[in-house]
Amino acid sequence: MKRHSILSITAVAVLAMTALVLTFRPIAAPAAVQNTDPKVARGAYLVKIMACNDCHTPWKLGPQGPEPDMTRMLSGHPQDMVMPPLTLAKGPWEWAGAGTNTAFAGPWGVSFTANLTPDPETGLGKWTAETFIQTLRTGRHEGQGRPILPPMPYPMYKNATDEDLRSVFAFLQSITPIRNRVPQPIDPPESE
After folding, report:
1. Do 44 and 27 touch, CB atoms closer than 8 A?
2. Does residue 101 fall inside a structural domain?
3. Is residue 122 included in any domain, yes or no?
């Protein structure tokens, strides 16, 4: 009887580990963004390890569970996905996120992840490397506008070197532009 229980537990553990490994497989850059420029290559590496795709690329349900939709790589919250109002009760749940991992609600209101592609009208196509660096250094849109909202970890990213941030920007400018107008943040409801 004991041996049967140990075998059952072992089988469940092996299945759980297999599912975990398959869920967290590495994200490969699409062939279209392979580039030999060392600055762009460094930027691609930094975008991967800084987990930019985790929030700025909409997620979908794939054959093995949730995965980034790399056909919309770094295009931000889908413009055609309108989020319904959300009220969070007081308690241990302080914030919530959309299934696409591109919209987040909490005490700050509702934030939507930005389009980081080089589309000139809806992304970073008109930005300069200096504007990008100032945005991450100051935590303000375009380095001077509205605050960047949670969960964007700019307090950590602002510690990157100018050289690394220029590499990230060079990579972002090298990817395929995607026209996707992300909604503006929504202020929190006024407290009563």
Report:
1. no
2. yes
3. yes
For 124, the domain range is: 40-174
Q: Beta partners for 62?
A: 65
Are the CB atoms for 174 and 153 separated by under 8 Å? no
Per-residue model confidence as pLDDT tens digits over 111-152? 999 999 999 999 999 999 999 999 999 999 999 999 999 999
Whether 167 is covered by a domain: the verdict is yes
Q: In whole angstroms, give the CA distance from residue 138 to residue 82.
A: 29
pTM over 0.90: no
Tally the domains of the chain: 1
Q: State percent of the chain over pLDDT 90.
A: 71
**Phi, psi angles (nearest 5°) of residue 135:** -60, -45
**Does residue 151 lie in a domain region?**
yes
**Cα dihedral 70/73/79/80 (nearest 10):** -10
Q: What is the pLDDT of residue 43?
A: 97
